[in-house]
Structure formats: C-alpha cells, structure tokens
C-alpha cells in the first residue's frame, strides 16, 4: 500500500509529530497553573503550526508529496483545529460557535464532497485561500488567547467573533465550490 520511503518521508514524520502534539497540548492546557503554564501550551501550538508549515514547504520544495501525505496532513490539521476549538470552549464559551462551524464545514466537505466524487469523479482542490486565511487566523487567535489567558474581555470576544466570520466566509466559499463542481457536466 504505502512504501517505507513514503511512510518515513520527512513531511510525513512532521505530520505524525503534529498528531503526537495533540495530547501533549491537552495535558499542558488543562494542567496549566499561571502564566508560565499557558505560555507552554501556546508554545506547543506554535510548534504544531510550524511543523504544519514545514511539512508542506518541504514536500513541495523537494518533491516529497506522497499519497500518504495527502491523506494524513488534512487529518493532522483537522484533528488539531478541532481539539484546540473544543478545548478553548471551556475557557472561552464563544468558541462553541467555532466548533459548530468546523463540524459543519468539514462535514459538508467530507460528505457532500464524497457524494460529488462518487457521482462525477471530481473533487475540490486541497485548500483554497479563504480557508487558509481562516485557519491561519484561527491559530493566531487561539495562540494569543492561550498565551495571555484573557477570558471574558472585549478583546477576546472581538478576536473570537472575527474568526467566526472568517470561518463562515470560508464555509460559504467551499459550499459554492462544491455546488459549481456538482453542476459541471
């Protein structure tokens, strides 16, 4: 199925690393005591984000894109995003909106995308700019809110709802793309 070279390519190892950081993030976040603990949690999320950037960069630059990477990279991305959103929901209740949007958007991409693929043999491109921007803002906002721990403040509310708006825009963009793909001959 997958060759040893594919399994142990540097970009794929970075994906495994990112998946491994998820339980470490959870542990550090929920056991954080004081600003140092929150900074450690934020640092783990920064490390995860950097590994995501470098796995894509290395894969493209050195022609190391693999079928396994195409499968595992989005899993690592979505798992990290979903866990971070669910985790922050405990401290910042407005994150429940982000959890709902993530579930709706990714559910739509998975199920409607699968339906269209089965019917027409076509699928959307991996990630489009509105989705990339929304995801980048999500992680920047999440890192800042973890690092500075400012629940119940106006700035945290503005940051979260700005992210919600960007996520909704990305969801609408992807739904339009799925609709156009469905209508193609």
From TrEMBL:
<keyword id="KW-1208">Phospholipid metabolism</keyword>
<keyword id="KW-0594">Phospholipid biosynthesis</keyword>
<dbReference type="InterPro" id="IPR048254">
    <property type="entry name" value="CDP_ALCOHOL_P_TRANSF_CS"/>
</dbReference>
<feature type="transmembrane region" description="Helical">
    <location>
        <begin position="155"/>
        <end position="174"/>
    </location>
</feature>
<dbReference type="InterPro" id="IPR000462">
    <property type="entry name" value="CDP-OH_P_trans"/>
</dbReference>
<protein>
    <recommendedName>
        <fullName>CDP-diacylglycerol--glycerol-3-phosphate 3-phosphatidyltransferase</fullName>
        <ecNumber>2.7.8.5</ecNumber>
    </recommendedName>
</protein>
<keyword id="KW-0443">Lipid metabolism</keyword>
<feature type="transmembrane region" description="Helical">
    <location>
        <begin position="12"/>
        <end position="32"/>
    </location>
</feature>
<dbReference type="InterPro" id="IPR004570">
    <property type="entry name" value="Phosphatidylglycerol_P_synth"/>
</dbReference>
<keyword id="KW-1133">Transmembrane helix</keyword>
<keyword id="KW-0812">Transmembrane</keyword>
<comment type="pathway">
    <text>Phospholipid metabolism; phosphatidylglycerol biosynthesis; phosphatidylglycerol from CDP-diacylglycerol: step 1/2.</text>
</comment>
<feature type="transmembrane region" description="Helical">
    <location>
        <begin position="97"/>
        <end position="117"/>
    </location>
</feature>
<comment type="similarity">
    <text>Belongs to the CDP-alcohol phosphatidyltransferase class-I family.</text>
</comment>
<keyword id="KW-0808">Transferase</keyword>
<keyword id="KW-0444">Lipid biosynthesis</keyword>
<comment type="function">
    <text>This protein catalyzes the committed step to the synthesis of the acidic phospholipids.</text>
</comment>
<dbReference type="Pfam" id="PF01066">
    <property type="entry name" value="CDP-OH_P_transf"/>
</dbReference>
<keyword id="KW-0472">Membrane</keyword>
<dbReference type="GO" id="GO:0006655">
    <property type="term" value="P:phosphatidylglycerol biosynthetic process"/>
</dbReference>
<dbReference type="InterPro" id="IPR050324">
    <property type="entry name" value="CDP-alcohol_PTase-I"/>
</dbReference>
<dbReference type="InterPro" id="IPR043130">
    <property type="entry name" value="CDP-OH_PTrfase_TM_dom"/>
</dbReference>
<dbReference type="GO" id="GO:0016020">
    <property type="term" value="C:membrane"/>
</dbReference>
<feature type="transmembrane region" description="Helical">
    <location>
        <begin position="129"/>
        <end position="149"/>
    </location>
</feature>
<dbReference type="GO" id="GO:0008444">
    <property type="term" value="F:CDP-diacylglycerol-glycerol-3-phosphate 3-phosphatidyltransferase activity"/>
</dbReference>
